[in-house]
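Notes, p. 3: input format for complexes.
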Amino acid sequence: MLFPQLAVLLSLVLGTLLYLLTHTVHLDRLQPMCPVESRPPPAGVLVQFPFRPLQYKRGLLHKLRRSNATRGRLIQQLPHAIIIGVRKGGTRALLEMLNLHPAVVKASQEVHFFDSDHNYGRGMAWYRHRMPFSLPGQITIEKSPAYFVTEKVPERIFRMNSSVKLLVIVREPTTRAISDYTQVLEGKEHKNKTYHSFETLAIDSSTREVNTKYKAVRTSIYAKHLEHWLEFFPVQQFHVVDGDRLITDPLPELRLAERFLNLPPGISQDNLYFNSTRGFYCLRFSRRFSKCLAGSKGRTHPNVDPAVLDKLRHFYHPFNQKFYQITGRKFDWP
Ligand code: A3P
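Output follows (334 residues plus adenosine-3'-5'-diphosphate):
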């Protein structure tokens, strides 16, 4: 007789427990590092953005956050800005450093939405769900370096949002090509595979000229790729970041990027410190929380035959001039 009443009582207790679990558990505590509360208060902007949205989006956490999001006005927005490349230009460092700004929220993973037919076919709702939770006034940013060199991408991005802001981070083209080669080489070595030398790949054995069929060489012809983007977007919609300076002196580059994104300065020198063991700047979120980029960033490059280096630098020279002319940003590349 008592059974129906007991069942009602039990479901009430269970419901209350579930409610308490999803509404009172402080999910940020589960983050391995960089909790929101301990970030330094960036002058002025913190009033607007009292806390950072939750960015871990997998499994149960993602689901719980989704329910919190509805309650707390957190939303997943399509990106307002995209780091479109260039591969090995310092795209990860740029994304992570911009993410120090309280008004910026990053998609942690490379989404590869516009360069992959498979992902693109999944539609814009799928893409939006790959984005982190953010407050309505915050800027969502993603990076997928393959976008810069993939033919279909500019038109696809244009169709999503013709006024999206586009960031391109570049390094001296020959160094970038070697960095690109080093990444692939490491992948081969992990699989115990042998691989050609950089010289063999970068120089055509029959003509002794630079081998433009080699992808690492082609990617560094920045002007050529950018010209294709300019068929869809005006040049003012791009911001070029100096990837070489981001390594040695990141803050001035971040200031320029903040200005391009129409953001007040929100990243300070305190957020960045040089780690002499890593040989790179690392990120400081608070006195207790800091992190360096993964070890796969900042690999030792192989020594390359100086004659090959000369040949490549000579090859890139006219394309570099063109790139300076288009972008209005000049570098002291050879
Ligand atoms: P190397 O591995 O050739 O040194 P991407 O993120 O686009 O793959 O770029 C990787 C490059 O980012 C690295 O190339 C490294 O030089 C550069 N980089 C810039 N700032 C860095 C930082 N603070 N920590 C580690 N690498 C950084």
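Strands lie at 75-76, 81-85, 104-106, 133-134, 139-143, 165-170, 238-242, 272-275, 280-284, 290-291.
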